[in-house]
Amino acid sequence: MTYNNLGNSKIDTAWAQNVSGLMRNSFTAKVIMIGIVVLLCQIPILMVDDLIDRRLDLAQAVEKDIASKWGYRQKVSGPLLAIPVSRMITQTEKNGKSSREVTREEFSTYFAVPQDLKISGELTPEIRYRGIYEVVLYRSRIKLQGNIVFPAGVDKWQLQLDKSRLIVGIADLQGISAISGKFAGQTVIPEPGLCDKAPFPSGFSLPLGGQKNGSFEICFDLNGCRELLFSMTGRQTLLDLSSCWPAPSFCGAFLPVKRHITDKGFTAEWSVSEFNRDLPGSWIGSAVSFQQPEKNSHCGESHYERSAGVTLVKPADTYLQVNRAVEYALLVFIIVLMAMLIAERLTKVWVHPLQYFIAALSLVLFYSLTLAISEHTSFATAYIISTLVLAGTTGFYSALIYRKWRSALGMALAALSAYSAIFVILQLEDYALLAGTVILFVLLVVLMTFTGKINRMESANNSGNIE
To answer: What domains can you pick out in the chain, each with its CATH number?
Structure first.
C-alpha cells in the first residue's frame, strides 16, 4: 500500500509538472485558457445586465408614480359629432308553439368626423426629480379648430338633434384643465363625460343644443409624461406642434411633412387626409374604437393607429448608454487579455491563469462602476472616470505581475485604448458598425503581427523554459 501511494504521488506530481509546463510554454494552451476565462466572465456580465434592468425598472416605477399625480402619456382623440338616434324595430318572439311580433324602440348614437380639423399645441417640458431619478413631464396648451356638418338624415333612424354634442377623448383626465369651447361663434360650456357608445373610454363633451353646421374652437391645458399624440380624425387634418425640448422623437402612424429641430427646440407640421387612414366619415354605434395608451405600460405601439405626435426623449439615457457599453464587453476582454498574453511572451514572465481571471473581473467591475456614477452625473463623465480608474488598476496589477514599468504602462494604455474606442463607438450612433469593424480589423492586424512569430517563440521555448 505504501509503494502504491508513493507511485500515485509521483504520477500526480509528474502530471502537475506537465500541465504547468504546457501552460508556461504552449501559446495555444494559453489562448484556450484565455477563451475559457472570457466565457466564465460572461456570468458576471449577465449579472451586470440584470442590475441595469433592475435599476431601469426602479426608474420606471418612479416615473409611473409621478405620472399618476401629474398625467400619463396623453392622446387626444376627436372631436367627433355625436347625435343620439332611435328607430322602431319589429322582432318575432316565440313562446312554445306560438309566436308573436313585438315592436320596440332601439337607441344608438350617430358619429361623424369634422370636415376639416386644425390642431395646434405648444409643449413646455418640465423635469421632476425623486432621489437620483428624473422624469420628463410637460405642460401643453391645445387648440382644436374645424367645421362640423350635420347630416340631413340617416336611413331608418330618427335624429335627436337637440341632444347633439361634440366629444373629445383624453387618455388621462388627471392632466386636463382650463377647458373652453365655442361653436358657431357662441360660447359652449364643456361637460365631463362622453356619450353612449363613445369610441374612446374617457374625455369631455360640448353640448350643441340643436345648432346645425358651424365651426368650433376648443382649447384646454393638458399635462402629461413624455408622449403626446393626436388622432387624425378630420377629413383633412393639420397638426402643428412646437416645444423648447431639443430631442423630439416623432411617433405615431404618420411622420411630419415639415420639421425643424435645433438646440433651442423644435417645430413640426403634419397633414393627413381621409385617404391616409381607415376611418369612415360617419357610423352608428360601436363600429369604430380608438386605442388609448396604457397607463401601466412604458412601451407598445397599439395606440399609434390613426395618430401622430411626439415623444420627449432624454438626450442621453443613462441606462441605455450603459447597456450599449456592456454589449462591447467581449471585445474589451479580448483586447486586454491578449495584451496580457503579448506582455507575458515579451517579458518572459509566466502569468498564472488566476491572474488572468482577476484582470478580467476588474473589467467587469468597470460597468457597475460606470452605472453607479452615471446615476449621479452624466454618462460621459461617469465613463471617463471609470476608464481612468480601470486603466490605473490594470497598470498597477500589471506592475505587480511583470515587475517592469514599461509592461505596466503598456497594459494601462491597452485598457485605456479599448475603453476609449468603445466610447467613440457609443457616440457615433450612425457609424457604430463601421467604427466597430475598423477596430476589429486593427486588432486583427496586431494579432497577425504577433502570432506570425509563434513558431520562432515556440522554438526558443523548447530550448529553455520561460523564467
So the answer is: 2-59+319-463 (no CATH), 74-315 (2.60.40)
